[in-house]
Amino acid sequence: MHLAYPAVLAVLLFCTGLYGVLARRNAILVLMSVELMLNAVNLNLVAFDVWLRDALHAGQALTLFTIAIAAAEIGIGLAIVLMVHRNRGTSDIDKLRDNAETHDAETAGHDGTPGAGRTAGSGATAGPDEKAEAAA
Amino acid sequence: MTTTTLAVLVPLLPFLGALAGLLLGRTAPGFVRPLAVLPTLAALVLAVLVAVRQGGGKAIDAATQLTPTGSVPIDLALHLDGFAVLTAVLVGVVASCVQLYSTGYLRDDPRYTSYAALVSLFTSAMLLVVYSGDLMVLLVGWEIMGICSYFLVGHYWETPEARAASLKAFLVTKLGDVPFLIGLFALAADAGTFRITGVLGAVATGGIDHPTLVALLLLAGVAGKSAQFPLHTWLPDAMAGPTPVSALIHAATMVAAGVYFVARLLPVFAASAAAMTVLAVMAAVTMVGSGLAALAQDDIKRVLAYSTIGQLGYMSGALAVGDRGAAVFHLLSHGAFKALLFLAAGVIIHAAGTNSLATMSRMRGLAARIPDAYWTMTVALLALAAIPPFAGFFSKEAVLVAAEHTALGDRTVAPAGAGWIVLVSGLLTALLTAAYATRLWLLAFRGRGTEAPEHGRQPLVMNAVLWVLAVPSLAFGLAVGVLGDWFDGHALTPTVTTAVLGTGIALVGGLVTYATWRHTIAMAPRHPMGAVAAHPQADPAVSEAAAIATHTHAYGDAGPSPDRHPSPIGLAEPSTAPDPADPARLLLGPLHRHAAAGFHLDAVYSALFVRPVRAAASLVGFLDREVVETYVRGAGSGTELLGRAVRRAQTGNVQTYLSALLAGSVVLAIAAVLVAAGA
Amino acid sequence: MTLAAGHGFLSPTGVEIAFLLVGIVTLGAAVITVTTKQLVHAALWLVVALGGLAVEYLLLTAEFIAWVQVLIYVGSVVVLLLFGLMLTRAPIGRSPDADSGNRPAALAVAVAAAAALIWVVIDAFRATWIDLDGPAQGSTKVSGAILFRHWVLPFEALSVLLLAALVGAIVLSRRDREREGGN
Fold first, then answer.
1. What is the Cα–Cα distance from A109 to A125, expressed in whole angstroms?
2. B358 in any annotated domain
């Protein structure tokens, strides 16, 4: 069998998973896409192991380890998603934007006019409100 | 003790006195006066001893090397010849007199401690210059004198005049000292040593490659220190210092250091005819110009300052015709009578409560109030005007004789042209000197008007010092017969021609001034002007400081130079008309206005140097503010704008970050593959 | 490690045809998994994709891995994912907001990555032939022998990792009693 077939299939599966990771909104769907990527790698490992006729069968052993680690990963990942969902009421990734540069920081940090303090103050009070809305 | 040990002690004692005075000044105020006077007196005694032992014989040389200093060695060397030992005696006499006088003059001054220590330090430095046999060691003393002069001129630093004058004195002399230092290095590089004996030996064997260059560089330093044209402008302003300081530093000793230096190294200068001619022209311009300026001054101390410049011009003239014996002879006699003139002027200023001659001329009976100052001043002025048999007559005649011999070709050390220049300008200056001496005496002591203010007796010590100094002013000229042996060996006695010519011209000057004064004095009561500013019972130094501070306000710009009021040249004329009772106004005619302002040299310097430098500074300031700072500000705001753009990318969406990261990875991977494929 | 000297792309063997067909199914299922609007369907399509991969393993004579794939992925992981979907109250039926606004960028990155990788892989392995003849290289016997002879230490370390993951998952998903009481 041509080695190119499993290799190309692995590439395509990997890129499909990549697309899923980047494009999906729900955290559990992202986890599924990660599984796809891992499987693509596994296919590569097995194919090359068979082709090389490795005496230690390192490729197959590593595949087994990858599967085990993927299982552990999915467990931890799901636990995290559940916890986020419990705390925030959502598992949408693009709503988890606590790290974003907010407009408040910009006005407070930039100009030193007397109005800036008031703007920053109102922004600071608005921040927790938004979080409360998100949690509801 | 050997002569060398004595000679080492001479500069060392005042130095130790200065140190001890500074250290003990606060804790033990009682020691300050003895510490100021006694080391100087001891130095004087030792200097006299050294002079007696040296006896005008062969020069004594001693040297020790503290540490190797590379290719051109620097030694702690003494070079004691007739010039050195006699000049040291003069320095010792004047310094002792000034220290004694200061104990009375500055008796209540809060800064007397530092003042006395600085005067001691100055004395030590001057003695070092006089005795030193090594040019580098000489330079050390030279610069210490400069800094002491700076501090002492600024003694009344509360007045802006004193502050400006001290800075000006320092900067102008340093302006000369820079070429002086370069000249010293050039000389040492040519001669291979800093020792004066070594340098003179190299000159004798023709070992100096660039005599003209070296001589002209050294002349710049000499002109700065000895207040010769064109670097003389600091000396009249330096009169803002206390009178004893003016007497010691700015009349008798420090300003003579330049002349003394040239006298020591005269063969170096004589090796270049061009340098001798430059020196002669410099001396001539200085003499005549300062004579005219002295005639027009209103401040008594400024008259004396310009007179000092003129007499230093005589010494330079003597050097320009290659006769250092005459130069040092005039240095010695001038040191004595000029110190006396200044110290007596200090008494007069205290008694009159003003330093303005115009005010004194409206004051009756000043001479009767201060008989000691009156008589000693008369003696000193006669000496200044070179009336026989006073000291100034003999020394000035020695200069004129040397000039005449050079002009007529009897002496071949210097070009004949230099001799003619010095002779003619010297005779002209003799006329002017007699004129301003007469004017000073008439205006100060023959005033008509209200009674001079009553005041307490002058301190005894001050009057005693005046009489001590009057002795050499009277009688030093009689030593003319023996002095020649102490110096270069040729006679310094006057010849009939120059004696008759010089004395006649001096008498003419004095009589013309007297006649003019008779004419103008009648106007004095009709033009009252000025006021006595200082309280007559105050400490002399306080009176003087007050007089300096109020002079400009009370009398306009007639006396002081216009640089105290930084104004364009067109506005530099006196704001009030000069005193019509002044005989100089009639004598000088339209020249008076310019002479009073020192021929506007300060304004010329201001236009030539100060304003271009200020314009350049403001240009640099503008460039810094508008150009350099724009770049700095641009760097700051550019970074800020970039930061604001970058923070827009911080959406908080992890998927966006990841997309960018992976896109970057893909681009990198493709690039790597392309490179690997050789595409 | 034999070069595909006499094996052109235009003369596929039976195994290759089977591999291609199953591969197309697997890829299609994977694409549907990442594009479908129905969340539960995505999980079910993932089962198809993972199962297809198990068949591919079988075709590559790695039979033990194939069974492990079926057991662990299809058996447990997907079930876990389904539980996760339910616990997060994922909507049943079409949800219009399954994809984020990042789609075009994601598509561009994925296509570019795929193009680059396929180009490289084809360029490198277009003439490489896998010799599948002889004894199965991934039989349970062979796998067990190498796993417990050569890889036993990593295997044990992996068990510790699994334990840690287990504990972590429990700790994370446990409801905090105090906070519960506080709220």
1. 17
2. yes
The pLDDT tens digits of the residues spanning C98-135 come to 787 788 889 999 999 999 999 889 888 888 888 887 77
Give the integer Cα–Cα distance in Å for A89 and A98: 15
Distance CA A29, CA A91 (A): 10
Contact A97 B651 (CB under 8 A): yes
Q: Model confidence over B367-411: pLDDT tens digits?
A: 777 888 888 888 888 888 888 778 888 888 888 888 888 888 777
The answer to whether residues A79 and A108 belong to one domain is: no
Residues of the domain holding C67: 12-94
Name the neighbours of A, counting chains with at least 3 Cβ pairs within 8 A.
B, C
How many other CB atoms sit within 10 Å of the CB of residue B621?
Answer: 10
Residues of C in Cβ contact (< 8 Å) with B670: 112, 116
Q: Where are the alpha helices (DSSP H) in B154-191?
A: 160-191
Torsion of Cα atoms, B627 then B628 then B630 then B636, to 10°? 170
Residue ranges of chain C with per-residue pLDDT less than 50: 1-2, 181-183
Whether residue A52 is found in the same domain as residue A74 = yes
With CA atoms as reference, the chain A residue closest to C149 would be: A56
Torsion from C-alpha of B177, B180, B182, B184, nearest 10 degrees: -130
Co-location of A76 and A122 in the same domain:
no
Dihedral sign for Cα C111, C117, C123, C127, please.
negative
Q: Is residue C128 part of a domain?
A: no
- Written in H, E and C, the secondary structure of B244-301 is HHHHHHHHHCHHHHHHHHHHHCHHHHHCCHHHHHHHHHHHHHHHHHHHHHHHHCCEHH
Rounded CA-CA distance B667/B670 in Å is 5
Round to whole Å and give the CA distance between B406 and B403. 5
Between helices A4-23 and C39-59, what is the axis angle to 10°?
160
Indicate the helix (H) or strand (E) that contains B77: strand B76-80
Residue B384 contacts residue B506 (beta carbons within 8 Å): no
**Which of B558, B578, B596 marks a domain boundary?**
B596
CA distance C116 to chain B (A): 6
- Chain C CA closest to residue A12: C114
Instruction: Give the CATH number, domain containing residue C73.
Output: 1.20.120.1200
Tell me the β-bridge partners of B617: none
Nearest one of B103, B147, B379 to B244, comparing CA atoms: B103
Number of alpha carbons in the 13 Å side-chain half-sphere of residue C156: 5
CA neighbours within 13 Å on the CB side: how many for B394? 26
Residue C175 is assigned to a structural domain of this protein:
yes
pLDDT for position B633: 92
Residue B17 lies inside a defined structural domain of this protein: no
Q: Which of C15, C110, C113 sits opposite A1 (nearest CB)?
A: C15
Same domain, B540 and B660: no
Cβ separation B673–C108 shorter than 8 A: no
CB contact under 8 A, A60 and C98: no
Q: Which residues, numbered 90 to 119 in chain C, qualify as contacts with chain A under a Cβ-Cβ cut-off of 8 Å?
A: 90, 97-103, 105-107, 109-111, 113-114, 117-118
Average pLDDT over every residue of B256-269: 87
Assess whether A9 and A70 both reside in one domain.
yes
The residues that bridge with C129 in the sheet, in sequence order, are A2, C2
The count of domains in chain A is 2
Domain ranges, residue B506: 273-596
Domain count across chain C: 2
Q: Say yes or no: B278 and B410 in one domain.
A: yes
For residue C3, the 8-state DSSP code is E
CA-to-CA distance for A37 and A35, rounded, in angstroms?
Answer: 5
List the domain range (segments joined by +) for residue A8: 4-95
- C110 lies in a domain? no
Contact B362, B450 (CB under 8 A): yes
Report pTM. Answer: 0.66
The CATH code of the domain that includes A53 is 1.10.287.3510
Is residue B80 in a domain? no
